[in-house]
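Sharing a chain and its predicted structure for anyone who wants a worked example. Both blocks are below, sequence first, C-alpha cells second.
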Amino acid sequence: MKITGLGIYPGALGAERDDEDNDRSSILPEAQIATLREVYERYRAPCPFKPGDLVTPRKGMAMRGEGKPHLVVATQDGTYHWNGETSTRGYGARLDMRTIKMYDTNVVAHWDESWMFEPYVGEPGNQVS
C-alpha cells in the first residue's frame, strides 16, 4: 500500500506488514526477555523520583531527550490515561511525573511515565552534584 501526500505510513492505518518488517531487533531473544523483565519491574513500581530531582530518559526508550537534563516538578499516583487514539503513545500511559526541560531557549513542561527515566548525572567530566 502506498499513500502519498498524507504523511502517513501504512502501519498507522492498521495495514498488515510482513513479519520481517515488524521484527527489526538484532538482540537475541534471551537478552530481549531479560530486558523486558527488568523494564517490567520498573514499570510496576511507584515513581522513584521526587520534585527537584534531575532525570533523563533512559537509553532505548524511543523518546527524545536521552542524556539531557529534565527537572521533576511534580509527581502523582500512577493513574492510567485512556484519552485519544488507541495507537498513540499516550493512550493507556501512566503519567506519574511532570518534568520541565529546555527546548532550544524555551522551557517546556510535560507529564511522563517515570519508568522511562533514570537519574541524570551529567556528561563525563561535568557531573552534577
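Comments welcome. The CA atoms of residues 98 and 111 lie 4 Å apart.
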